[in-house]
Amino acid sequence: MKFVESFFIAIRSLFANKLRSSLTMLGVIIGVGSVITLMSVGRGAEESITSTLEGMGTNLVYVSSKTPGVEGLASMGMSAYSFTLSDAEEIAERVPSVVAVAPIIENYVEVATVDESTVAFVEASTPEFEQVVNYPTEFGQFITHRHVASRSTVVVLGSDVAEKLFGNDDAVGKKVKVNGRQFEVIGVLEAKGGQMMGVSMDAIIVVPITTYQSRLFPGGTIRGEDAIQQLAVQIESTEVADVVSADITELLMERHRITEEGKEDFLIMTQEQMMGMIQQVTGLLTLLLGAIASISLLVGSIGIMNIMLVSVTERTREIGIRKAVGAKRRDILLQFLLEAAMLSLSGGAIGIIGGWAVSWLISVFSEAAGITINAVVSADIIVLAISVSVFIGLISGIYPAMRAARLNPIDALHYE
To answer: Which among 1, 29, 132, 274 could disulfide-bond with 351, CB atoms 3.0 to 4.6 Å apart, if both were Cys?
Structure first.
């Protein structure tokens, strides 16, 4: 009963000073809204990257080139990449449990027609690319071994690239220029959605790897062979990933004449390891964003404490009267704690709605801009935000409430 009575007294007190209460809540509203918005954007980015990786399949092993001490090779017409097509062929033939190997070189290029142009992310590879990274064509065909063998100037466009260049028209059979060289469009990839490291998965183009090496970005290894950036290896199942990684390491060390461990010119990473690293990085980023936004909550808590101290001073006579008619210290303490908690709880509730609205707007506008950030407002973020806001309210109200509870009733009654 005492609690209910104190609750209604707290409500009447807050409504008696509507403007002051609203301005006090503003700090909490901004703080909670910022926490929800920034953490939701971080969570959305993590889910977007994770879903993109899962869309490629979970039974992949990536072998990336890592050639140390080769700065300045580009000026001599050589590449820092250490792989060749024969490396990919040997892995596919000699390593057990390997289903297919797609050699890959990536770069940014300009793709243009007579009327339109756009920047795309080129994936230079072989026909295995379509199967290994799960990138089927929707129209036309994918590159073939004949295209690779003859260094054909053909290109498969991502759905976004095709739409930007040709709109709703059929792109298959049309001509485009890739970095100023004319290519024929032989296919358009299915729309996948999502992003990988800031690159839309639909804003890519695929060309034969030999065409890339000879016509777009010529560059050889330090042994004079055509260079390859990385190898995407599809394996039978994730259970054999560690065994396959060890077999690939042994084979490449033998082929590249590396005799000392730690001197490898390559780096092997399973898709599970990649997902773990990405989740760790995005998780830390989300926590960092939440911590930055929490500064606003700290400012809001200081505002609550300040207003509660003012309220205690203004209501000293009221406190004296209540004590004189039988109110105990815990009753006064409870009343002021409830007022502080209600300020923060109300501000937190409004902040949750505001944060959800801003997160939704970010998702809408980012999609319109072609970035696609689906901010995820999950239940744990909401529970965290509301719990922190109530905790801040209680902590901020403890000192003012204790000060009010300790007032001597006789001195309080004489206070003007």
So the answer is: 29
**Cα–Cα distance measured from residue 162 to residue 200, given in angstroms and rounded to the nearest whole number:** 13
- pTM, to two decimals: 0.65
212-269 confidence digits (pLDDT tens): 988 888 765 555 567 788 888 888 887 888 888 888 888 888 888 887 777 777 888 8
What is the spatial distance between Cα 130 and Cα 143, in angstroms, rounded to a whole number? 9
Residue written as token pair 């790897």? 209
Tokens of 274: 């990649």
Integer Cα distance of 236 and 331 in angstroms = 69
Question: Over the stretch 42-52, which tens digit does the pLDDT of each residue have?
Answer: 777 777 766 66
What's the pLDDT at 76? 41
Q: Are strands 98-112 and 181-189 parallel, antiparallel or unpaired?
A: unpaired
HEC readout, the chain? CHHHHHHHHHHHHHHHCHHHHHHHHHHHHHHHHHHHHHHHHHHHHHHHHHHHHHHCCCCEEEEEECCCCCCCCHHHCECCCCECHHHHHHHHHHCCCEEEEEEEEEEEEEEECCCCEEEEEEEEECCHHHHHCCCCEEEECCCCHHHHHCCCCEEEECHHHHHHHHCCCCCCCCEEEECCEEEEEEEEECCCCCEECCEECCCEEEEEHHHHHHHHCCCECCCCCECECEEEEEECCHHHHHHHHHHHHHHHHHHCCCCCCCCCCEEEEEHHHHHHHHHHHHHHHHHHHHHHHHHHHHHHHHHHHHHHHHHHHHCHHHHHHHHHCCCCHHHHHHHHHHHHHHHHHHHHHHHHHHHHHHHHHHHHHHHHCCCCCCCCCCHHHHHHHHHHHHHHHHHHHHHHHHHHHCCCHHHHHCCC
Point out which residues pair with 109 in neighbouring strands.
Answer: 120
Rounded Cα distance, 27 and 302, in Å = 9
Q: What is the pLDDT of residue 110?
A: 92
User: Do 409 and 324 form a contact (C-beta atoms < 8 A)?
Assistant: yes
